[in-house]
Amino acid sequence: MNASNSDFSRIASIDIVRGFVMVIMALDHVRDLMHVDSLTQDPTNLATTTPALFFTRWITHLCAPTFVFLAGTSAYLSILKTKDNKTSSRFLISRGLWLILLEFTIVNFGIWFDIQFRVWLFQVIAAIGLGFIVLGAAIRLPSTVLGLGGLTMVCLHNLLPPSIPLFAVNAIPLGQETTLVIGYPPLPWLGIMLLGYGFGNYLVKSENREKLVLRLGIACLLIFAILRATNFYGDPSPWSTQKNTWLAVMSFLNVTKYPPSLLFSLLMLGTMFLLLGLAEHLKGRIPRLLIVYGRVPLFYYLLHWYVVHLTLFAVLFIQGFHSNDFVFGFRFGRPEAPSGLSLGGVYLVWAGIVCAIYPVCRWFCRYKYQNRNSRWIRYM
Question: Do you find a cis peptide bond into 259, omega within 30 degrees of 0?
Answer without folding.
Answer: yes
